[in-house]
Amino acid sequence: MNAQTPSAATLVGELSLGGGGPTVVVKDCIDVEGTVTGCGSRAFASQPPAARNADLVDALLEAGCRIIGKANMHEIAFGMTGVNGFTGTPVNPLWPDRIPGGSSSGSAVAVAEGLCDFAVGTDTGGSVRQPATCCGVIGIKPTYGRVSRKGLTPVHSSLDCPGILARDMDMLVRGMTAIDPTFVPEKLLHAPKLGRIKSEGVDAEVGDPLVYALMDAYPDMPYDILPSFEAAFDAGMVVMSHEMAQDFGPMLDQGAPFGLDIAARLRNARKITDAQRAEAEAVRTRFTAEVDALLERYDALVTPSLPTVPPTLAEAQDPQNVLSLTRFQRPFNLSGHPAITLPARSNAGLPIGLQIIGRKGEDAKLCAVARWITSCIPLFQSKDRNQ
């Protein structure tokens, strides 16, 4: 591809590392030797450069990829809008009045504007899948623990996964193969058996196009329920906040210059009790078992990617317009299952998407299911999305 000139705030730094393979940008919470891992934060700007590459950066270079830059992000990966008062806010290329999504905002924008072939982000509660949907690209959160987190910030997380964003399935699979040498692409021999998860609170503007598209291909696709779905969203928030407070709370005590919104979130996160964390872990155990049980009957499960179209930048100033954006994504960080989002457009031309969830460890099969959907259902075909 011909690289484009990045829009303001898409990248926090340009690089030229590696071979002549696919061009890649990596989120700025991923260590690249000799560069500061800035995490989109003034609090990290004066840190010393990384002494070595993150494991996944070494994997990209060994696969022959060319790393061309560090992508901007929501500060310390603790937010969903991508709005950043320190490094600037990446501009959503197709919908510039709407949020680019967070926290992998720069990664999603870089892919959407054609700056790179694929990008690497991180996903703690939807932070690859949500900005992918906002910007009209594909995003995958692998099975938790499948891709090494060594060299990533935050250092400790039981939720966070490095993931890939790309404009098409071929490049997304190529990206997964690059960061995970154990990933072996698969092809389906027949149509996958899919189950729809009953999801409350979906706007008709989002739900109707998805349902009609799926009904055309699968007129008899059953609905199923995950009884702990809502509880898993809340539990995921508790676990993420508790872990973020552990990693970044000491910096807050030392007067680190976090943005006002991030400092407030960290202070609130520090109020989470051990009892609340234990309750969240009980939900994790229960919800994981529910997902595993359903996936014994289906090849994959599907939900909307987002319950609403992404808010405008003005609307996103009200937290109430943002809080529920990851309600269908965050539960699968808690359970650790791989999940991929396919972008589409509403009848009004606004970004929507379909989330597909697979069995743990079967990331390649999940990608094969997603490829089948993009090949058979017009709503998810890139030639239609990009018109």
Automatic annotation (TrEMBL):
The organism is: Celeribacter ethanolicus
Q: Which GO terms describe its molecular function?
A: catalytic activity
Gene3D superfamilies, alphabetized = Amidase signature (AS) domain (3.90.1300.10)
Q: Which PANTHER family match?
A: GLUTAMYL-TRNA(GLN) AMIDOTRANSFERASE SUBUNIT A (PTHR11895:SF151), TRANSAMIDASE (PTHR11895)
Q: Which InterPro entries does the record associate with it?
A: Amidase, Amidase_CS, Amidase_dom, AS_sf
* Alphabetized Pfam families for the sequence: Amidase
Its recorded name reads Amidase
- Which superkingdom is the protein from? Bacteria
Name the PROSITE patterns for this protein. Answer: AMIDASES
What range(s) does the Amidase domain occupy?
24-174, 268-367
